[in-house]
UniProtKB/TrEMBL annotation:
Taxonomic superkingdom: Bacteria
GO biological process per UniProt: DNA transposition
Domain Transposase IS116/IS110/IS902 C-terminal as annotated: residue spans: 282-367
Biological classification of the source: Bacteria, Bacillati, Bacillota, Bacilli, Lactobacillales
Protein's recorded name: Transposase
Molecular function, one GO term: DNA binding
InterPro entries xref list: Transp_IS110-like_N, Transpos_IS110, Transposase_20
Domain Transposase IS110-like N-terminal residue range list: 5-164
Pfam families membership: DEDD_Tnp_IS110 (PF01548), Transposase_20 (PF02371)
Length: 410
């Protein structure tokens, strides 16, 4: 007789339901999402095992719910009392349990959700993953926050450009350098002088100031100075009230961009230090164009490669798979890609594939082939297909602990 414990995870509480193989409910209630609550569930499981001579296996399952399921999952896995039993800890895809619950005409409550999770476990249609070790969990925390910080920088830059256009609508067309360089952001933030002061400043003085601020890194500071003065003169004029407001917003976004960039450097330093002690980092870094950032993101989301029985399961986990559709004697040739899976892993695979194809002729040839197969969305489709090809390479490198050896282009 098996015991299937379904747990509906929320931020503050855990709704649980213990169901045996005959679909009898053994226990059902809710506890706080804290060690004390998890210990209560463990005690109920142990009491059931002690009371049964035919107790065989215990399956504890809960949905992947943001970060809320991580603590109880680790707590169950590290319980010596549960380890003495034949216990499986299962993390479920919420889409799978949701579809299963829709088969029944029931209300939607946390109590019923726990019941349906237990019933789903009873059916046995789940996979038991290899537990992520602490190093991969730590790396995942860092790389996901890095992903968030990069997104914030992108958003800030977009808002900055919109407001910059409002203030100097001809600047980007005139300026021979990026507006996001440290020197240009200092100039545009008004920290040293206003835009009106720049317009009236002698060209030689502005050139010297730009050269000083950039520590001589501008190849042609005089050209930048000319472009800046020209843009200020040729752009639409704003009245002082509006101009002051826009200048304040520009200065605000410059401070935010610099803050996030500083955080990015700190994260990159921590990620690099952690990657140095994780298996597989050397294998992935051996691929041309992959780089330390993408390598870290891939390792963090994949975890131990032993979690996946083959490369197809890894691709499915990333949402880079296409379901087969066959009926009778016909089979559908065009099938949509699944939209399940780890969005972070999929992001890193697609971005890594787009970078690798620039450096590796084999991937470049494959990308070009897929690019030419369709009349629209060529780049997006080619990147996704190249990412699927990359999955096979990554799986072999991590499984065999090998370094990448570029294949010869035929």
């Amino acid at each position: 007789m098996n015991l299937n414990v379904g747990i509906d995870v929320a931020k503050a509480k855990l709704d649980y339901c213990g169901m045996d193989s005959a679909k009898h409910i053994i226990f059902q209630d809710e506890v706080v999402n804290a060690p004390a609550g998890t210990e209560k569930i463990i005690k109920l499981i142990l009491d059931w095992a002690d009371s049964r001579d035919d107790a065989e296996k215990v399956v504890i399952g809960m949905e992947a719910t943001s970060v809320y399921n991580i603590h109880p999952t680790l707590y169950f896995e590290q319980s010596s009392a549960l380890q003495a039993l034949d216990t499986e800890i299962v993390t479920l895809n919420p889409k799978m349990t949701h579809r299963y619950s829709q088969l029944f005409d029931d209300d939607k409550t946390d109590t019923l959700d726990a019941f349906h999770i237990a019933d789903f476990l009873r059916m046995g249609r789940y996979q038991v993953p290899v537990t992520r070790d602490e190093k991969h969990i730590a790396l995942q925390r860092l790389t996901r926050e890095r992903y968030f910080v990069v997104s914030q920088i992108t958003d800030c830059k977009n808002h900055f450009l919109n407001n910059l256009y409002f203030r100097l609508n001809t600047l980007e067309a005139e300026l021979p350098t990026s507006v996001f360089g440290n020197t240009m952001m200092t100039v545009l933030s008004g920290e040293k002088y206003t835009l009106d002061e720049i317009a009236q400043m002698p060209l030689e003085t502005l050139t010297q100031d730009l050269n000083q601020l950039s520590h001589g890194r501008f190849g042609e500071p005089e050209e930048v100075a000319k472009a800046l003065k020209k843009a200020i003169r040729s752009s639409y004029r704003l009245n002082k009230t509006v101009a002051d407001s826009v200048d304040q917003i520009l200065a605000m976004y410059i401070r935010e961009i610099r803050m996030f960039q500083k955080q990015l450097k700190e994260l990159d330093k921590s990620i690099a230090a952690l990657c140095a002690v994780i298996d597989g980092a050397k294998s992935l870094n051996s691929m041309p164009g992959l780089g330390p950032v993408y390598s870290a993101g891939l390792l963090a989301e994949i975890g131990q490669i032993e979690r996946f029985p083959d490369e197809a399961s890894l691709a499915s986990y990333a949402g880079l798979s296409w379901r087969r559709s066959q009926s009778g004697g016909s089979e559908r040739q065009l099938t949509p890609r699944t939209h399940n899976g780890d969005q972070y892993l999929r992001y890193y695979l697609v971005e890594a594939a787009n970078s690798i194809r620039v450096h590796d002729p084999v991937f470049a040839k494959y990308y070009d082939k897929k690019y030419g197969e369709v009349p629209k969305y060529q780049h997006r489709r080619a990147c996704i297909m190249t990412a699927r090809k990359l999955v096979r390479v990554i799986y072999k490198l991590l499984s065999d602990h090998e370094l990448y050896v570029p294949a010869k282009v035929v």
